[in-house]
């Protein structure tokens, strides 16, 4: 459904040829079908991409001077808008007020990306990459009728950490782990789809930035700690899905460590890294914030996976602990997952095998009621085994 301005860039025949779909461009074509009402009523999702400053203003004030703005007024399905404009326009008080109005009405306005704009300009206001925007829209659709209040994180700031940190040993080697960052990125995307302002602290990962999230890149555990604590100052929830390295070399060699001629291996002295999750849970940079941790566990002679996890939950002091059984290398690098979400209140919610997006929403489903209770002290709920 291109606007008149959009047709100045790409003509209707091109839209039709590339999409294989009919193009609806004005309210006067096929009037007998009442397109300005029919399209909105029958849609499962309306996506406006890019959403210009002009379009945001029209939608916020209920103007209806073309087919798109008429459809926005008749749509009763979720609406996703992906703003794209120059930084000065995005940051203008009028635009910010229009965005706030739309969000109050339940429209999901995705934060624009930062990067190259028209001409030589660079900054916030870039349209998110199509694949990343598609993932957000698919997330909104996937929740469907089970979503309840679709934007139940609207007005909330959440911090998510993801990926595995790397501790340098010399210029070419490091100590790290197998975390891919997929679960943390799924959590960030899910939070965006539920209306949150999302800060994603990303350690090593090869994933593309999720649409709508502010990404802070880090390398070491110390850098992750600093970034998470800084972002958590005004956060309603912090989800530590990253895998920080537990240890770091005491000394980092300025030159590559060479092999010894006699075949002997060097001795590397390690120091323990700070426990970021425990520090967050104890300090609570924002009083009442919900803190969620992850535990990658295996059973052994001393206890089962859940026994180890319950001890870790008590030791860390967080509100929720997402427990993954990683026996045999499960979870790492995969698109699917299963877990048990343990609560400090004694609750236990089993999330069966499925996509990491599904698990992400299950985690936010446990966070949201604790936020509504003022966070910090979890809502008193009966123990759940599902």
Automatic annotation (TrEMBL):
Annotated stretches, region: Phosphopantothenate--cysteine ligase: 158-386
Note describing how the cofactor binds: Binds 1 FMN per subunit.
DNA/pantothenate metabolism flavoprotein C-terminal domain mapped to chain residues: 153-368
EC number(s) given by UniProt: 4.1.1.36, 6.3.2.5
Chain segments carrying region Phosphopantothenoylcysteine decarboxylase: 1-157
Residues that hold CTP according to the record: 246, 256, 274-277, 294, 312, 316
GO molecular function, one term: ligase activity
SUPFAM superfamilies cross-referenced by the UniProt entry: CoaB-like, Homo-oligomeric flavin-containing Cys decarboxylases, HFCD
Pathway: Cofactor biosynthesis; coenzyme A biosynthesis; CoA from (R)-pantothenate: step 3/5; Cofactor biosynthesis; coenzyme A biosynthesis; CoA from (R)-pantothenate: step 2/5
Keywords assigned by UniProt, alphabetized: Decarboxylase, Flavoprotein, FMN, Ligase, Lyase, Magnesium, Metal-binding, Multifunctional enzyme
Reaction equations catalysed: (R)-4'-phosphopantothenate + L-cysteine + CTP = N-[(R)-4-phosphopantothenoyl]-L-cysteine + CMP + diphosphate + H(+); N-[(R)-4-phosphopantothenoyl]-L-cysteine + H(+) = (R)-4'-phosphopantetheine + CO2
Domain Flavoprotein: 28-140
Pfam families linked: DFP (PF04127), Flavoprotein (PF02441)
Cofactor(s) the protein requires to work: FMN; Mg(2+)
Similarity comment: In the N-terminal section; belongs to the HFCD (homo-oligomeric flavin containing Cys decarboxylase) superfamily.
Protein role: Catalyzes two steps in the biosynthesis of coenzyme A. In the first step cysteine is conjugated to 4'-phosphopantothenate to form 4-phosphopantothenoylcysteine, in the latter compound is decarboxylated to form 4'-phosphopantotheine.
Protein name: Coenzyme A biosynthesis bifunctional protein CoaBC
Gene responsible for this protein: coaBC
């Amino acid at each position: 459904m291109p606007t008149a301005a959009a047709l100045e860039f790409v003509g209707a025949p091109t839209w039709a040829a590339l999409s294989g779909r009919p193009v609806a461009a004005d309210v006067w074509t096929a009037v007998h079908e009442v397109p300005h009402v029919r399209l909105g009523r029958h849609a499962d999702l309306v996506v406006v991409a890019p959403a210009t400053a002009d379009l945001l203003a029209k939608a916020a004030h209920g103007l209806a001077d073309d087919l798109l703005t008429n459809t926005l007024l008749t749509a009763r399905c979720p609406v996703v808008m992906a703003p794209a404009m120059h930084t000065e326009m995005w940051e203008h008080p009028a635009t910010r007020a229009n965005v706030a109005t739309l969000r109050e009405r339940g429209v999901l306005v995705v934060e624009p990306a930062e990067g190259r704009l028209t001409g030589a300009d660079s900054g916030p206001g870039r349209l998110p990459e199509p694949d990343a925007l598609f993932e957000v829209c698919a997330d909104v659709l996937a929740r469907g009728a089970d979503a309840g209040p679709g934007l139940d994180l609207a007005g909330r700031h959440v911090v998510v950490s993801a990926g595995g940190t790397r501790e340098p040993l010399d210029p070419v080697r490091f100590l790290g782990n197998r975390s891919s960052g997929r679960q943390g990125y799924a959590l960030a995307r899910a939070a965006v789809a539920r209306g949150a302002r999302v800060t994603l602290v990303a350690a090593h990962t090869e994933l593309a930035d999720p649409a709508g999230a502010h990404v802070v890149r880090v390398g070491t555990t110390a850098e992750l700690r600093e970034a998470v604590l800084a972002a958590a100052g005004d956060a309603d929830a912090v989800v530590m899905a990253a895998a920080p390295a537990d240890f770091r070399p005491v000394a980092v060699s300025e030159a590559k460590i060479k092999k010894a001629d006699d075949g002997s291996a060097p001795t590397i002295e390690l120091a323990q890294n700070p426990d970021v999750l425990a520090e967050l849970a104890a300090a609570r940079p924002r009083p009442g914030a919900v803190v969620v941790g992850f535990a990658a566990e295996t059973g052994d002679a001393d206890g089962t996976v859940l026994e180890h996890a319950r001890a870790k939950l008590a030791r860390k002091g967080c509100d929720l602990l997402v427990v993954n059984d990683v026996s045999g290398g499960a979870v790492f690098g995969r698109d699917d997952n299963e877990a048990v979400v343990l609560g400090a209140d004694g609750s236990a919610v089993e999330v069966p095998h499925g996509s990491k997006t599904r698990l992400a929403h299950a985690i936010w489903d446990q966070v949201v009621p604790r936020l509504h209770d003022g966070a910090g002290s979890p809502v008193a709920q009966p123990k759940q085994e599902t």
